[in-house]
Structure formats: structure tokens, C-alpha cells
Amino acid sequence: xxxxxxxxxxxxxTRQSLHAPPPDEITDSIQSKLLWDLAExxxxxxxxxxxxxxxxxxxxxxGPNSTKSRVYxxxxxxxxxxxxxxxxxxxxxxxxxxxxxxxxLTVDRTSVSLHRDISRFAAEIVVELGSLVAAFxxxxxxQKALATTFEKLRDRMNTRVTREEQLLxxxxxxxxxxxxxxxxxxxxxxxxxxxxxDDILTIxxxxxxxxxxxxxxxxxxxxxSQERLDKLFEEYKRTGSSExxxxxxxxxxxxxxxxxxxxxxxxxxxxxxxDRFVNSDALQQEQEANCLxxxxxxxxxxxxxxxxxxxxxxxxxxxxxxxxxxxxxxxLRNDKFSEEEKEFQEAMDQLADLxxxxxxxxxxxxxxxxxxxxxxxxLMREKAEEVQKSTRITLEKLKKKLQEIPRxxxxxxxxxxxxxxxxxxxxxxxxxxxxxFAEALSMARYAKRSLRxxxxxxxxxxxxxxxxxxxxxxxxAREALPLARKxxxxxKEATPPPSKIMSKDDSRQLERLxxxxxxxxxxxxxxxxxxxxxxxxxxxxxxxxxxxxxKDAMKHMQRAEKQMRSRDPGGARQxxxxxxxxxxxxxxxxxxxxxxxQKQGRASWRDEPIRIPGAEDYKAPEEFREEILEAMKKDKxxxxxxEQVKRYYKEIMQ
Length: 654
What we know:
With 654 residues, the chain is mainly alpha-helical.
């Protein structure tokens, strides 16, 4: 038997049979084929999958013998990781240019042949720069101005190489005296050195900015991992699934790895950049790693709820670090904001205020709903069995219809949404058994929303890529929607109207919340209009992300107002929550869009050339630079410390 064995490094392994020959089959070689659906792996950037083939014979006398192939690795690289490689290439070019500068400062001014060697080395760097420019255009995280800067830098170097080659050829032909050669070459060297120093400083400025932006990229991945952990913990509280516990442990390992990456990235940054531009609060990886260790220890001890609370503490610290990094990047860009950044920051501040105010409305609506749900459970105690019986039939029909949906016709997203939908129906059933009718109605509404999402996704899939299984899946999802609506109607009819149950105080408070929601929607509309009327004053696609997010949030706000007007705290709570969530997502989307390059249009505020303060305020005397560069060429440093020594000399020169 031949099996494909795969799984995350250090995690659970899965086996899939490729070939299982009959017991009497004897052969020296076989051929088999397996279509491996990578969607099963839940691949995300940074996760490493190990896989190999294992062969087991059918020795029934001494027992089966097995052997396996070498282990292969499968890893999905994120755009940020590819961008890191590009930063490494920029650092290599910077090191070569520094070496070129060292040679230029110490070269014998009378030697034409040595100048030819230096010129050939400069020509090689021109080729490296050209290769970088081409790579920038295929890298989604490289800003447009970065490619433009390096393209101009390459053109300047190429012009200098051409100019020097002409000078050297002229000097060889004329056969001039050493004194005149030294004067001509000295004048040329002085001019080239000044231009080369400016180019090196420019590359250094860009490298420092990209390093901090890269830290922010890792910070975004950390945030995504945090959010996934929050969902997994909540899901575990409802189900107690051992599989979810393993998933939580796996996600914690991913988060730890991201924090290690941040620590590694920050340790390689120049100390002056860290001290001046990076807030110390932004780099507390050691404390955050210790915090995660406590989470793991609590999980190992079986104290899952305590681990969840500890994770909330860790998430708060990680959020503070991310905010501090954003502030650090702003300081590095410029002490004085550009008009675009001012506009962007003002819009982001307003968006943050909207998100906080919307969350306050959602929290207050939630409190009203909880009091209402408790009253419903008390009033429904006597007729609970009757309601359970009537809704159970519809619920079973809906679950059966969902089982008819062929999984082969679903996308990875639809499969995940279907699992969420099925879990919500299980939760609805469990709530009915506990006489929590208001909660059951709320959960049934969420289930209907998931079902509608699956149907819409399938319809989109059919427009893009038709398949028979997708057609069948879309048909069953469409037919399931009336059953979901029927379930909601049955629960609404059985549940006493909120207007008859809610206290006068709660009714008045819901009316006040409706007015607050209207006011908040009006403020959101003004912000959306302001962003639209300004054209494109914001970095990248940040403005577009804000407009789209605000429009979606306002739809939820309007529906929340409608539910508040009809005194439905359950529906109001759901829509108010969704509006708050959408505003939070919009803010994150705008931040992410602002850090990505603009593929078209004018340069953004992140595309402006950056000058590290102090670099142009002071230039070391030529004699001092010559001494340092000469020492750098000779002093390789003790074994194991060559990189530190090299970095030391580079920082002295800058």
C-alpha cells in the first residue's frame, strides 16, 4: 500500500491512500495518480506543510514492513516575505556601493588601470540596480516611487560609468604626465564621491522606511492570527471540540512564530533608527512572548476559559504595539505632515470615533436585549414543549436540505461558511431545548444570513466557472432559503412581541438609541461624502476602502434604526453589532491600503523621498572617511562577528 502522509510541521498528520494492490499482486514497480486538493490544508502564508510517501508491504508472516520517501516541504509565501527578499537584495546593492565608495576614496589618483577596475565594478552595480527595478514592478508592496528612485539612481550611475570610461580612454591615448593625470582623475573622483555618497544615503533612507513598514506588515499578520484565536476560543466555548483545541494550539504556534519574526527584524535595524523613530512600546516582543507562554501553560493544564482571558490580555498588548509602530512610521516619514497625510489622519480619527460610538450603541442595545430574552424565557416556560415540537420539523427539513449540497461544488470559502451555518443550526436547536427562545431566534437569523452568503457565492462561481456540481449546490442552497425564513417566522410567531414584554424604561432607551443611530449614520454619510468630493487625496486605495466600508456600515445602521423603531431588540442588536464590526474592518482596511503602493495615479504620501534627520546635517572630513573605509577593508573582525563589524562601520559612515 502506498500512502501520501502530510500535515503541519510538529502537528497532526493525515494519510491518504494512493494505491492499495490486491493481496496476491506482486510487482517491482507501480504507477499511481492522486489529485491532492490543497484546500484541505487550510494553507495560509507562513504555515509549513511536510509531506512524504510511505510504502507498506503485505508480509503476513513477520508483519508488514514499511519505508518512506524523503520529506518534502510545502510553504505558502506571503507578499511580505517576498518583499523581505527584495529588501535583502537592496541591502546587498547598498553594501556594494559602500565598497565602491571605499575604493574610490583610497584609489591611487595616478593609476588609470585601478580606476578601470573600479569603473568595471560600478558597471556591475548598474546591472544589479536594473535587476532591482524590474523586480520592484512585480512586487505589490514596493511603492511606485521606490522603483522610480532606483531607476534614476541606475541612470545616474550608468552616466558616471560612461563618463569615466571616456575620460580613462582619453588619458590612455594622450599619455599625459602623472601630475596632470592625478589632477584630472582627482577632479573626477571628487565629483563622483559626492554623488555616490548622496546615492548611498538615499538607499539607506528607503531601507530604514521599508524595515519599519515590514514590521507593520508582520504586525498585520499578528492581528489576523489574534482574531482567528478569538473566534476559535468562542467556538470552543460552545462546542468543547478537541479538534478546536488542537487548532487553538496550532494558531498559538503561528502567533509565536510571527512575534519571533518581529524580534528578528527589529534586532537588525540600526540603533539610531530604533532610538529616534521607533517607540519602545512598539517592540515589546519579549513581554508578549511571555504572555503567550502563559496562555499555552493554561491550555496544557486544561484551563481553557482562563487561557481565553489571558489571550485577551495578550491581544491588548499586541494592539498597543501595533499602534505604537504606526506612530513610529509617521515620525520616520516626516516631522511635518503632508497635506495628504493630514487628510488621511483626520479621516481615520473620525472613523475611529464612529466605530467607538457605534460600539457603545451596540453594547447598550445588547443590554436591553438580554433583559428582554430573560423575560421571554420566563413567559414561554409553559408552552415551551409545543414550540419546540413545531420548530423541530422545519429545523430537520432545513438540515436535511443542507446535507444534499455536494461539497465538491463549493469553493473553500463556501465550505467554511457551510460549516458555520451548520453549527449555528445546532446552536439554535440547543437553545430551543434550554427554552432560550429569543437567543434561538437571533441565531436562526444568523444562520439565514450564512445561507444567503453561500447562495450568492455559488451564483458568482457559476458566472465565473460553470460546473455541474456547483449548479446542484446552488439549487439546494436556493431551495433551503424558504425553510430558513419559515423557521424564523415560526419563532417570531411563538415569541411574545417585544413591545408587550419590554419595560417602559427599556422602550424609552431604545427610542434614544434610535435617535443616536440616526445621528451616527448622518455623521458617517458626511464623512463618506467628504472623502468622495476630495477626489483622491489619500495614499494608495485608502479613500476607496473607506468609502466602500462606510457605505456597508450605513446599511447596517439603517436596518438597526428600523428594528429599534419596531421595538425589536434582537434584530437591532444584530444590526448594530454588524455596523460596529464593519467600521472596525474599514479602519483596518484603510490602514492596509495606505501601506501598499499605488499602481496608478499620483504619488502618495508614502512615496515621498525620506531623509533621516542628521544625515545631511553633518559630513565627516574626507581624511576621516578614508581612514574608516580603509579600516573596513582590512578589518574582518573576529570569527562570528563579521556582520556586526560591517554594520558598525556602515553606521559610522552614515
